């Protein structure tokens, strides 16, 4: 059990228009150098446009692995200006040496004077398509497993670039985010895995209910509205 990683970039953003139709989103984040307060609803000065699907106590902070940028630079059909700077995926935390393969559901970490808990993986949505000017970017992110993840805040505090993210507790060492994402999107009707997901108390209730619904129906829910916006 070891995570002790520097917070390379701390990012926040205002809700702004991201297309010609006037779609609002807080996905465009920019690095800050000063310390910021962090509470159960997120970073001081950070905004979300759609409070139904973004933000809130179970999505207070979004973390994205900086090493994934290299993958996207080499796999997208055209160059994306968004990838030239951290914050392309709407992340608040940017680090190296922490990925979906090494982070587990329910991990408790300290950062600055705050304590945070890994709550869920990201479920990519269609606003990524607009952000990257790539019509299937949300689907690409979902298929890659490089989705990033969210934290809930257990102890409010102050965070600053250069702080260490240090693992304090790992109650679910076998449930990496990669394993969760594989069951969610690839091996989606693996009943043995779904039964365990339904019992993972660190996951938000909505995720556990999704697993229970698949177990009961034997069917996979429709993702098209989320990933395409239709």
Can you characterise this structure?
This protein is α+β, with helices and mostly antiparallel strands and about 230 residues long. The chain has one domain: Beta Barrel (M1 Pyruvate Kinase, Domain 3), CATH 2.40.33. It contains seven helices and 14 strands. A hairpin with a 2-residue loop joins strand 10 and strand 11. Helix 5 runs antiparallel to helix 6. The relative contact order is 0.19. The model has no long low-confidence stretch (mean pLDDT about 95).
Largest sheet: 9 strands, mixed
Named CATH architecture:
Beta Barrel
Tally the helices: 7
Q: Segments where pLDDT lies below 50 for 5+ residues?
A: none
What is this entry, summarized?
By secondary structure, the protein is an alpha+beta fold. It is 24% helix and 24% strand.
What brief labels describe this structure?
7 helices; 230 residues; 9-stranded mixed β-sheet; alpha+beta
SSE topology sketch:
Blueprint: E1 4-6, E2 9-12, E3 16-17, E4 24-25, E5 30-32, E6 36-39, E7 42-43, E8 61-65, H1 68-75, E9 93-95, E10 108-111, E11 114-121, H2 127-132, H3 137-144, E12 149-155, E13 157-159, E14 164-169, H4 177-185, H5 191-197, H6 205-217, H7 224-228
Parallel strand pairs: 8-9
Antiparallel strand pairs: 1-14, 2-5, 2-9, 3-4, 6-7, 6-13, 8-12, 10-11, 10-14, 11-12
Helix pairs in contact: 5-6
